[in-house]
C-alpha cells in the first residue's frame, strides 16, 4: 500500500512538473515574440513587425504600412521604447492565451505599462492579438 501511494504521488509530481515546464516554455516563447516585434520596430522592419500581428489585427490593418502608421500614432512607447522589462505574466485556456506585462520607458523618459495578449494560432505559433498601453505616474523601471 505504501509503495502504491508513493508511486501515485511520484506520478502526480511528474505530471505537475511537466505542465509547469510547458507553461514556462509558452511564456518564454510569447516573450520572444514581443521582443522580436520590438526589435523589428526599432529597425524599421515593417514586414517583420507586422508578421507578429494576429489575424484579427491584420483584418483591421490589411497592409503593413497601415499597421505601422497605427502603431506610430497610438503606441509610440512600444514603437520606440527606451528601457523595458517584462513584469507579470499569465497563461490561460490551456496555454492558448498569454497575457504579458511590459514596463517601458518611452520617448521623453515617461514610464508606461503595456499589457500584451498573445494567442496561439492553429500552426502553434503565438501572435499578438492586442496591446493595452497605460501611462504610469511613478517610475516603473
UniProtKB/TrEMBL annotation:
- Domain of life of the native organism: Bacteria
Q: Does the keyword Signal apply?
A: yes
Entry keyword annotation includes Signal = yes
| Signal peptide per UniProt | 1-20
Q: Which InterPro entries match?
A: DUF4864 (IPR032347)
Keywords for the protein's UniProt record, in alphabetical order: Signal
Please report the name of this protein according to its UniProt entry. Answer: DUF4864 domain-containing protein
